[in-house]
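Question (not urgent): is this output format expected?
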Amino acid sequence: MLVVALAVGGRGREQPGVFDPARPVTADVAVPLLGAGAWHRARDGWTARVRIVAVEQAGRKVGGPDRAWLRLRGGLPPPPDRRLRVRGYLSRRQSYLNLRSSSPGHWGLNVKSRRLLDGMGEEPGPLLRTAVGLRQRLLEPVASSARPGAILAQALVFGDGRRVPPDLRTGLRRAGLSHLLAVSGLHVGLILGGFWWLLGGISNRLTAVSGGTVLLLYGCLVGPRPSLLRATVMALLVILAVAIERPPQALNSLCAALILILSFNPGAAFDLGFQLSFLATAGILLLTPRLLERWRCKATGPVGHLATGLAVTVAAQLATLPIVAVRIGVLTPLAPALNLLFVPWTALTLGVSLMWVVMAAGAGVPLLSVVAEPGAAVLLGVLDALSVPFTWLAELPPGPWLAIPVSVPFKDALVLAIWLGILLSGLRRAVYALSLVLACTPGLGDPEPRLVMLDVGQGESLLLQSGDGGPVILVDGGGFRQGNFAEAALLQALAAEGIHRIDLAVLSHGDADHCRGLLELARYLRIERLWAAGAEVRDGCGRELVQRLSGRVRLVERGHADALGLWRLRVVHPGPDPGAHGNSASLVVRACAGRSCALLTGDLDLAGERELLAWIRSRGGSLRSDVLKVAHHGSRTSTGLEFLDAVKPRMALMSAGRRNPYGHPAPEVVERIERRGARVLRTDRHGRIEVRFRRHETGVRRPVFQVRAWPR
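Got this back:
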């Protein structure tokens, strides 16, 4: 059976309530055949970025999103039509409701059968077919090679970075260098610079016409990416000015490019790449001269060139600061210095990549293969060597000097950018400095110990905080099987809590929805120590996490205890030889602050509960706790009656995704807990849940429960 799925990016045209997610819709989609939107082979089929033209439900038109990733599962090739009609269910992943809500996830249009996908008879014209054939001819030898140089060349030349290793992507993002893989002004400048170097001494007009023609051809091969469109339009306007012997005006060209692109595609204004590209260029044009003037640097000589490069990167970072802080949530203090090193290195790599792509494509032509084949082999070896410094970025240890997770409203980020621009431009007045200090000074810490269950969807993550800036304990980190959950939600959720370091991480279970977020988080935040059960780190995500935190991992078993700040932690499961794996071997921790305790059970199942109860009774101990973290998201395979009677919780916390396909939490489990008088709180209904414990209370064992709930 062939399954089609659509995942939509961007803000879109959706309007609340215009369609019913529980009922099927019919969508007409436009399939671009070039560049980033072209069909690509995927692990389980084919993918393409499409535009949704219209959405109907129950025979009437309704509002819907405007952009989508179309995934065609199965071995059959995609239909050649440029327009398709698909029928399925339109839905999206909800945002995670913590102190600051994360951005909602992608829309999805899930189609169960090929019979629900129809072509609309719109085939590409001869010019488009020629361009598609040329792109495939150039891309085929690149995509067929698994060497690191070929993967990097595919990303740099064609803007197709899907084969770039996740660790390298993360390394670039942490260093503020993600823009290096975006097809943008660097490519345009290299192409035009090459033509000016070759033909500039012959005729300016010949150079302008040749360069403009090649730019248009390259744009057809790569596709209408926002950054490339901006750079191409600006370059063509500069070429036109040179051809008619008029002085080029970069700022006017930028404004003209903005107006032209938005005239044809108003929705581009909501695209992150579009926003970053235009803001960075505007910052470079407007702020760079002012920075150089205030720094009293001349743009000549080695020092002048170095200062100019630094001013350019600082100006671009200042201009994009509001968008980066709000939509990406990570600030990169070292980005200006690293850009000075990696921008010229990337330009060199791009130049070699362009030559290799041409050579590799020519290797299949009989008359050219004699020269092109050995030349392509040599250039590919050079590319492999040039790709090595990029891999070093993935190995840099996390820390505030490299990447700082932030969670700020847009207005605060904009004010901060203006203040930084004023200060760095040389107007060092005390009032601005004082305002900046006040804006960046954190508020007073909460003096009470808190347990916070973060909303991580169909996963699990809990924070234990001592208050007053004490140690931070993170139990599990949520996660996706694919994608980067830490970047999508966890980093901003922790930044909103004021957390930039983890003193102790506890891995209760090796499944992706507990472990993957911790594994990704370790790239950004320093994790001082990790507790894990031996059975959970033998393979998979748990093993990767232990390898990444080598030297800071302690394999624990029942009886192990420690105190961090106001929290006392004791491991009560599993034993030294659990004789089980999976959910039965989940790490169970009893955490106490003052006179109150919380039992954190991971994904412990009924068999594990029975084994734990038998051990507790054999020692005459007690599991009684005020708060119970319900195991396995409230699954019916956990939280038995005997276990509840032993714990006697006042409150039960459940972490589950809204409308998850597993039916978590099970209604019978919720009813079982409520019948025993415990209050049930669930992240799928309440979002982030906070339990605050009184430090100086005497007599009554009663924690103060504070719940921040959002209407779902």
